[in-house]
Amino acid sequence: MKNLLSLLLAGLVPLLLRAQTVGPITVETRNSVLQLTVSGNKRLLQSYLGTKLPATELAAMSGGREAYLTAGMENQFEPAIRMVHADGNPSLDLRYVSHKSSGAAGSQTTSILLRDPVYGTEVTLYYTAYENEDVIKAWTEIRNTEKKPVLLTQYASAQLHFNAGEYWLTQFHGDWAREVQLVEEKLTNGIKTLESKLGTRTNFYQTQTFIVSLNGPSTETSGELIAGSLAWTGNYQYTFEVDQREGLRVRSGINPFASEYHLQPNETFRTPDFIFTFSAQGKGQASRNLHRWARNYAVLDGNGSRYVLLNNWEATHTNFNEQRLVELFDEGRKIGADLFLLDDGWFGNKYPRNDDKAGLGDWQEDRSKLPSGIGYLVKEAKQKGIGFGIWLEPEMVNPKSELYEKHPDWILKLPNREENYGRNQLVLDLVNPAVQDFVFSVVDDLLTKHPDLAFIKWDCNRSMTNAYSPYLKEKQSHLYVDYTRSLYKIMQRIRARHPKVPIMLCAGGGGRTDYEALKYFTEFWPSDNTDGLERIFIQWGYSYFFPAITMSAHVTSMGKNQSLKFRTDVAMMGKLGYDIRVNSFTPEEVAFSREAVATYKRLSDVIWKGDLYRLVSPYDEPRAVLMYASEDKRHAVLYHYLTTPRRKDMFGRVKLQGLDPAARYRLREVNLIPGTRSTQPDNNKVFTGEHLMTIGLNLAPGRANPLTSNIYELVAE
Ligand code: DGJ
Q1: GO BP, one example (predicted)?
Q2: CATH (residue range 309-501)
Q3: Would the N or C end of the chain have less CB density within 10 A of its end CB?
Q4: pLDDT, tens digit, for every residue of 392-416?
């Protein structure tokens, strides 16, 4: 008997061991790989993240750090997840159960199921690898398998681990009218946190994008780094924890601040996506990876086209009438704009919207300003050969409004406290399904009633304070998460009925710029600051993560000390539009702008869909140089902006990038003021790509005048 048992065991043990050994799990793109392995005790480890290695090298990578750290047991670093079980046990023990992979066009998704052996909690880590774009999308699903609710107090989308000599963090901090200012610093031991607690928007201190360079600061063309961004239009948090052995843990997810989440039995919490790219060729490559991924997979109509629009905000603010608007259609036509966008101030009756103090929430035409209604304007615009778009701020309400009077319970406000206003307004309780129906129908009614309405600008002019949802009652800690989810629900309903209409996302400037929003919005408004000099820096900052096709850039009268050409050249780096009194233009300025719009339209495919190369940073020199090159390298657009040069500054030649060394390109200055000639001695000459990339061009041949600019086109012959 004893012999039989030992015989059986001898046969079974190797079998069991074999069954228990799980090979490495690799998430691969063309040039990078994330490898996970399962330890002897079934913990999931990140054993490698970096440049793609030959299979034999990868196979040798074992061990590593726990991929998704839990709280409450032996881990003492920032956890990716913290859960309190129904019985009050505040710990989670996650062990590998299984993994699988499935493919879709251009991408491969790997999911890894982990389970707590005692409590049954299931956590599935997902990684979608976009092969050609070198981008990985990571998210997590957490399922409560208990019979009673559990509490989640931390629920990261992903955690990544690094072992390098040094880590340099690039963050993009900002404020209203000063968005995405770039700062790069060495991470020291301890925890650095980047986050937003603003609820409806993110731009108080920084946008939700970052770059971590390994072993020293990366440049545009060299160095290893990851560039990451959370696709979430609400409170986010990144922690960068450098431990006592110089290991770095990067945790990315929703900000758990005031957001403990009660998960019901069988309910699954899905985190937002964390998007990242690993580049071994510096920041420029990382941006190109993200731009391509964004156009191909993330942004609504990312490879489509966009309208050149004329907005009336700067020209009229809320002070206009029907006749003035119709005149503005003609002004738009004069410069070749495709669409006229009617901004704030067109609605409100009992409380007319003559400034930002009243009317918000009452989305009926103000009959004193627009007696013939929106329908008339849409028709009139069409007759004049220009599209018509409209501004909305549907998540908000002024206390001076009929909406507020009718539905005081639809508003986020604390009981027993005074209302707290931002721009004289309050935030609607989007979590309430009745409010969702209202917001949906504001948009749906307009688009249904006016099928020719061609564009919407969706604004959001305040953050949340005194955040309390009358609808959520005792579940207040769900507010920040559920508000954002409710916004998505509304957008899904809108898109189901109106899949194509372009919608610009604005949040008092660039308060909302993220890749989840861009699934529903075709473009964003980067900043209310449209001064040309400021915009160079702001657009430069966004360019690290967002392609030009998403970045609205308008020529306005801000920065009047700058020539119209300079402001136009700056706006032509993004998605060109206008927000200016065209009737104050001289005939020469009209002619210039008309020509500029035509040139922009001719070059827009390269600008929107080309590869971006940042050549000289305005943070390094008193100028900025960048270029877009088409994928086939036959066509490129080169921008040169002199910002604040001193009188005798000398500038070196600029080496171009992204061209075909063997091709011969003709250089031609475009967007010249009619009647003037290029002062570039190399204008109209032909150069090989090799010459342009190794010898370069002298882009400031004459005196370097502040706030001047040139745009060149390069066409392979
Ligand atoms: C803030 C936006 O950023 C502006 O462009 C404009 O639409 C105003 N809101 C209107 O209130």
Answers
A1: carbohydrate catabolic process
A2: 3.20.20.70
A3: N
A4: 999 999 999 999 999 999 999 999 9
Find the catalytic residue in 273, 528, 569, 579.
528
Three-state SS at 315: helix
Q: Where in the chain is the domain with CATH 3.20.20.70?
A: 309-501
- Phi, psi (5° rounding) for residue 36? -120, 145
Q: Which CATH fold topology does 613-716 show?
A: Immunoglobulin-like (2.60.40)
CATH 2.70.98.60 location in the chain? 25-298
The predicted structure's pLDDT at residue 13: 44
Q: Give the Å distance between the CA of 419 and the centre of ligand 1.
A: 23
The answer to whether 459 is a known catalytic residue is: yes
Structure tokens at 195: 């986050």
- Measured at the CA of 512, the angle between CA 507 and CA 518, to 5 degrees, comes to 120
Q: What is the ipTM of this complex?
A: 0.99
- For ligand 1, the distance from its centroid to the CA atom of residue 312, given in whole angstroms, is 10
Q: Kindly report the CATH number that applies to the domain delimited by 25-298.
A: 2.70.98.60
Query: Is there a catalytic annotation at residue 330?
Result: no
Q: Is 148 exposed, middle or buried (0-12, 13-18, 19+ CB in 10 A)?
A: exposed
CA of 147 to the centre of ligand 1 (A): 49
Pinpoint the residues of the chain covered by CATH 2.60.40.1180. 613-716
Ligand 1 pocket mutation pick from 343, 353, 355 by most atoms within 8 angstroms of CB: 343
Confidence of residue 21 (pLDDT cuts 50, 70, 90): confident
Number of residues that this document lists for the chain: 717
Cα 466 from chain centre = 27
Active-site entry in 134, 273, 366, 459 = 459
